[in-house]
């Protein structure tokens, strides 16, 4: 399983969708890159193969990065190496 994590500006957590095949993950990665490169902001809507009911929509001008990582084994946290997930205390 491959995870595509989208890093959104001013947001401490990333948005992610999963793909079963490397080729499909690469296609999503390229789709996100193309949306970032486009000078006109657009809504990018993605679905998840692992949880088909999961949908993610983000305005392309708010994306600051995209990462593909491979999930392996049951010990995987589902987060790409090098990124920290933070929660805000009230």
Topology record:
Elements: E1 2-8, E2 15-19, H1 22-37, E3 43-47, E4 55-59, E5 63-70
Antiparallel strand pairs: 1-2, 1-5, 3-4
Short account of what is shown:
The protein is α+β, with helices and mostly antiparallel strands.
What features would you describe in this structure?
This protein is 18% helix and 33% strand. The mean pLDDT is 84. It contains one helix and five strands; from the N terminus they run ββαβββ. A hairpin with a 7-residue loop joins strand 3 and strand 4 (55-59). The longest helix has 16 residues, at 22-37. It is globular. The strands form two sheets. The protein has a three-stranded antiparallel beta sheet, covered by helices on one side. It has a two-stranded antiparallel sheet with strand order 3-4. With 90 residues, the protein is an alpha+beta fold.
Based on the model shown, name its key terms.
single chain; 90 residues; alpha+beta; three-stranded antiparallel beta sheet; two-stranded antiparallel ribbon; 1 helix; 33% strand
Mean pLDDT: 84
Overall form: globular
How would you write the strand order of the largest sheet?
2-1-5
Task: Estimate the helix proportion, in percent.
Answer: 10-25%
Cα distance spanning the termini: 35 Å
What is the number of helical segments per DSSP (H or I, 4+ residues)?
1
Helix/sheet category: alpha+beta
* Radius of gyration of CA atoms, rounded to a whole number: 13 Å
Percentage of β-strand residues: 25-35%
What's the helix-strand series?
Answer: EEHEEE
């Amino acid at each position: 399983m491959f995870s595509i994590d989208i890093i959104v500006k001013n947001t401490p957590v990333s948005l992610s969708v999963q793909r079963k095949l490397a080729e499909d993950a690469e296609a999503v990665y390229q789709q996100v890159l193309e949306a970032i490169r486009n000078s006109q902001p657009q809504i990018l809507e993605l679905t998840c193969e692992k949880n088909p009911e999961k949908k993610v929509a983000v305005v392309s001008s708010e994306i600051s990065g995209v990462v593909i990582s491979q999930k392996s084994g049951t010990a995987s946290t589902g987060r790409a190496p090098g990124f920290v997930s933070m929660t805000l205390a009230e």
